[in-house]
Amino acid sequence: MVQHIAVYFTAFTLLLTAVSAATGYHNHTVGGTAGWFFNSTTNTPSTNYSSWAASQTFNLGDYLIFNTNSNQTVIQTYNETTYLNCTADNSDNGTFIYDSGSSRFGEALTVPVPLTIVGPNYFFSDAGVDSVQCSRGMAFEINVDRGLGLPPSLNQPPPPPYVEPPDPDTDTQSPPVTVAQPPNGGGAFGRRANVRLAVYGFAAAMLLLQ
Ligand SMILES: *[C@@H]1O[C@H](CO)[C@@H](O)[C@H](O)[C@H]1NC(C)=O
Ligand SMILES: *[C@@H]1O[C@H](CO)[C@@H](O)[C@H](O)[C@H]1NC(C)=O
Ligand SMILES: *[C@@H]1O[C@H](CO)[C@@H](O)[C@H](O)[C@H]1NC(C)=O
Ligand SMILES: *[C@@H]1O[C@H](CO)[C@@H](O)[C@H](O)[C@H]1NC(C)=O
Ligand SMILES: *[C@@H]1O[C@H](CO)[C@@H](O)[C@H](O)[C@H]1NC(C)=O
Ligand SMILES: *[C@@H]1O[C@H](CO)[C@@H](O)[C@H](O)[C@H]1NC(C)=O
Ligand SMILES: *[C@@H]1O[C@H](CO)[C@@H](O)[C@H](O)[C@H]1NC(C)=O
């Protein structure tokens, strides 16, 4: 009898463990310890992001956490054409740009991106002349499963986007900026101008460096 109880208890514990593992929402650190970086000397991404993505399982309500700096961009799209062409088109409602508004190179950033739509989601960095980062492999596709469905925190009308105010006195030692975003990425194009500035600034720097 005691043995039976022990067996039931063990089975129950294993079941609880399995259920909680399957029911949690997960944060996936993009690229693992390599982060989301492009080496402009070797012209290569810091890791193979497709391989990284293939090692993960993604569900609604999970977040991708991009540990990066302002030398890269984070573009999310549901449009395969946009992804394959490495260009963010602001007339397309399925493309979102996550950026801090920073115009300085190398400022540390943490960009959390919630997964809110089932199916293929595509990510890339369009930084560099002719989106060189994307065309050199800084891009990946994931497939998002339903899992538990969206948690209430992501299933509501989005708050207005928050933009970190620029601080001209900070240097590159400043702490990482977290880019706050509405869950569905709404309003991302309101700050398109910042992205253009950053991209043109980057292009100008690349020309000077040549
Ligand atoms: C995942 O990241 C989001 C956004 O940064 C955060 O609000 C949430 O607490 C994180 N969840 C876990 C389990 O770390
Ligand atoms: C880029 O790659 C070069 C050559 O491997 C290396 O020396 C340099 O430290 C790398 N730069 C960064 C920022 O990781
Ligand atoms: C990255 O890994 C994928 C397989 O996950 C492979 O098909 C691809 O060729 C790799 N890319 C590079 C640049 O090595
Ligand atoms: C995807 O983007 C292309 C190029 O911008 C556009 O022509 C097409 O209509 C978009 N598709 C969808 C489903 O939005
Ligand atoms: C593809 O990218 C080029 C620039 O690299 C751009 O001129 C063209 O409009 C883009 N096409 C689509 C369908 O987005
Ligand atoms: C874009 O708009 C179309 C038509 O209004 C809609 O069917 C589609 O779901 C939207 N896509 C996204 C990603 O919001
Ligand atoms: C950012 O890019 C600029 C221009 O290419 C480069 O000089 C700088 O070293 C980069 N910074 C980091 C932290 O990668």
Automatic annotation (TrEMBL):
The residues the entry assigns to the signal sequence are: 1-21
Q: Which GO terms describe its molecular function?
A: electron transfer activity
Gene3D superfamilies assigned: Cupredoxins - blue copper proteins
Instruction: Give residue spans, biased composition: Pro residues.
Output: 154-165
Provide the Gene Ontology terms for cellular component. Answer: plasma membrane
InterPro entries, per this entry? Cupredoxin (IPR008972), Phytocyanin-like (IPR039391), Phytocyanin_dom (IPR003245)
Question: Region (Disordered) spans which residues?
Answer: 149-187
Provide the organism lineage as a comma list. Eukaryota, Viridiplantae, Streptophyta, Embryophyta, Tracheophyta
Alphabetical UniProt keywords? Signal
Organism encoding this protein: Lupinus angustifolius (Narrow-leaved blue lupine)
For this protein, the record's Pfam families field holds: Cu_bind_like (PF02298)
User: Residue limits of the Phytocyanin domain?
Assistant: 26-146
Please state what the protein is called: Phytocyanin domain-containing protein
